[in-house]
From TrEMBL:
Alphabetized UniProt keyword annotations: Cytoplasm, DNA damage, DNA repair, DNA replication, DNA-binding, DNA-directed DNA polymerase, Magnesium, Metal-binding, Mutator protein, Nucleotidyltransferase, Transferase
GO cellular component terms attached to this protein's record: cytosol
Pfam families (alphabetical): IMS, IMS_C, IMS_HHH
SUBUNIT field: Monomer.
SUPFAM superfamilies tied to this protein: DNA/RNA polymerases, Lesion bypass DNA polymerase (Y-family), little finger domain
Gene name of the encoded protein: dinB
UniProt xrefs under PROSITE patterns: UMUC (PS50173)
Gene3D superfamilies tied to this protein: 3.30.70.270, 3.40.1170.60, 5' to 3' exonuclease, C-terminal subdomain (1.10.150.20), DNA polymerase, Y-family, little finger domain (3.30.1490.100)
Subcellular location: Cytoplasm
Protein name: DNA polymerase IV
Length: 400
């Protein structure tokens, strides 16, 4: 696969997206530490991050670190509208846009020099347009590969621009900490540290076979390639999402009963299955994500015998996963529950199940129609009546 010899790939990433939208919309919050989400931090402004506040931290810990922080509830509709406005600017800049999440995307600007200028010129103009038209700061990294463009934007944050020229790639990359390699989390970083490896350059100096022996074949080959900036992936457009998910932060102030968790699960699955049908998709794999009070996490997945968009089928599978995890929940406490629907397909490509004399989605469809016409709260499940469903948020990163 061909990779351009020029730095023509942009990675554009909105800065502390949720918190930036809140500061944009409320002048009283500007230049002040802001935390989005009370029970668990969904986002923090850079003023709050300066005190050590981080995404996914408990609200209590965040307030202890930054007592003067202003805590605001999340407004998902505002974030969605801001994201749509920013992506419109991306697509006006180049037709080659690959969205990664609600707040970041890759853009390929190769071939635009005559009409739009050099890639750095385009990046400068993109940042200015996002700030002037949407009112949000955005950081852009420019490089020859997607991987390095993403690393460049991370290094340039907040509100920065960094161009990595092709002849300076390894000089830029190799001094960086190993966590900058895409896919290296805390566990892999600790394992490498045990071997005395803390920088990307030290990874690059190891033979591929040695990395494979340390980390396994897939991870070893992956990190060896990235440490040498070998990333042949092009910017891909029109790729439909392979999964969709939502999560609910529960906080750590009280223990949740099995009934409490089941109610939360019902609310998440109900909303997510509706989104699935609205997108004319069906899923084959369901995944339950849990975070405990000590911040450890587990995921449990189940593959269904047939792809479906039926709420009862998805809910039944999720309930089985939750029931299996209840001993751990009782022992460790729970602060977050998340649901992901994966292995998605178009709903018109699914083989009909026998018997064929009824439509198993008829009730779901009727409920969707009522909610579309009269609002999402016009019709709800009995188990959710009178209960605080809290705020469920898409499983999309709101990273630094």
């Amino acid at each position: 696969m061909f990779v351009s010899g020029q730095a023509t790939i942009l990675h554009a990433d909105l800065d502390s997206f949720y918190a930036s939208v809140e500061q944009r919309d409320d002048p009283r919050l500007r230049a002040r530490p802001v935390i989005v989400g009370g029970g668990v931090v969904l986002a923090a402004s850079y003023e709050a991050k300066a005190y050590g506040v981080r995404t996914a931290m408990s609200g209590g810990q965040a307030r202890r670190l930054c007592p003067q922080a202003i805590v605001v509830p999340p407004r998902m509709s505002a974030y969605t509208e801001a994201s749509k406005a920013v992506f419109a600017i991306f697509k006006h800049t180049t037709p080659l846009v690959e969205g990664l999440s609600i707040d970041e995307a890759f853009l390929d600007v190769a071939g635009l020099r005559r009409i739009s200028g050099t890639p750095p010129d385009i990046a400068v103009r993109l940042r200015r347009e996002v700030l002037e038209e949407v009112g949000l700061p955005i950081t852009v990294g420019v490089a020859r590969t997607k991987f390095l463009a993403k690393v460049a934007s991370a290094v340039a944050k907040p509100d920065g621009l960094l161009v990595v020229p092709p002849d300076g790639e390894l000089n830029f990359l190799h001094p960086l900490p190993v966590r900058r390699l895409w896919g290296v989390g805390a566990i892999t970083a600790d394992k490498l540290k045990g071997y005395g490896i803390t920088t990307v350059g030290e990874v690059a100096r190891l033979p591929e076979d040695t990395l494979i022996a340390m980390l396994g074949r897939a991870s070893g080959r992956h990190l060896h390639a990235l440490a040498h900036n070998r990333d042949p992936r092009p910017v891909r457009t029109g790729v439909r999402r392979r999964s969709m998910g939502a999560q609910r932060a529960l906080g750590s102030r009280r223990r949740r009963t099995a009934q409490d968790l089941d109610t939360t699960l019902v609310g998440l699955v109900d909303k997510l299955a509706r989104r699935l049908r609205s997108a004319h998709r069906v899923c084959r794999t369901v995944t339950l994500r849990l975070r405990f009070e000590d911040f450890t996490r587990i995921t449990r997945s189940h593959t269904l015998p047939q792809a479906t968009g039926e709420t009862p089928v998805i809910l039944s599978a999720m309930r089985e996963l939750l029931a299996a995890a209840m001993p751990m929940i009782r022992e460790q406490g729970i602060t977050l529950i998340g649901v992901t629907l994966g292995n998605l397909h178009s709903d018109n490509a699914v083989q009909l199940a026998i018997p064929l004399n009824h439509d198993p989605t008829a009730l779901d469809t009727a409920m969707d129609d009522v909610r579309d016409k009269f609002g999402s709260k016009a019709l709800t499940r009995a188990v959710l009546l009178g209960r605080d469903e809290g705020v469920s948020v898409p499983l999309l990163p709101d990273a630094d």
